[in-house]
Every structure is written in C-alpha cells, then in structure tokens.
Amino acid sequence: MFIERFGMQAVLTRHAQQRMTERHISIEEICHLLETGTIRLKDDHRFWAATTFQGRSDNLICVAAVFEPPTVVIKTVMHHFSWEA
Predict the structure, then answer these.
(1) 37 and which of 2, 49, 69, 81 could share a cystine (Cβ 3.0–4.6 Å)?
(2) For residue 17, how many other CB atoms are within 10 A of its CB?
(3) How is the chain split into domains, by residue range?
(4) Most distant CA atoms of the chain, gap in Å
C-alpha cells in the first residue's frame, strides 16, 4: 500500500497482520490512519500514528511504525490506545 503522506510504500510485519485480524482492523483503516491520523515521533525513524473510527467502540486505533526508506514498516497495531502525557 502506498502512503501519499510519506511518499512511501507501507508494509506490515506478520505481527501487525495478526493483530489486525484479532482486532478486526482492515487494510483500508490502516491506510486511512496513516494518511490522516495524528503522528507522534519517537525519534528520526520511529513513530506512532493514531486516529478514531466512527462506529468502533475500542477508542483510538494506533500503529507503531518505523521509516526504513523506501518503506514504512508497520510493526504492530493497537486498539484501546491512549497517548501518554
């Protein structure tokens, strides 16, 4: 999947794919999250992106990801997420 916001392809680890399945999160939702969600950088390479989805009752959906040009690697997908202070 190509993420316009970053100008890069995004790839999912097996772990992220498993979490998506367990949490009933679609590829389309991940794309939307990456294109429009709130981004918080951990450093120059690692970040979190999160957003809410209408009709979901599990709070924020979040991905932990890393920039590994020419890709963005989605390491995991979380739900019932909250930002730390």
Answers:
(1) 49
(2) 13
(3) 2-38+53-81
(4) 34
* Amino acid at site 22: E
Tokens encoding 29 = 């939702």
**Confidence class for position 85, pLDDT limits 50, 70, 90:** low
Helix (H) / strand (E) element for 76: namely strand 71-81
Q: Write down the pTM of the prediction.
A: 0.91
Residue 81's Cβ-count burial label (10 Å; 0-12, 13-18, 19+) is: middle
Report the pLDDT averaged over residues 38-52.
96
What is the Cα–Cα distance from 38 to 51, expressed in whole angstroms? Answer: 6
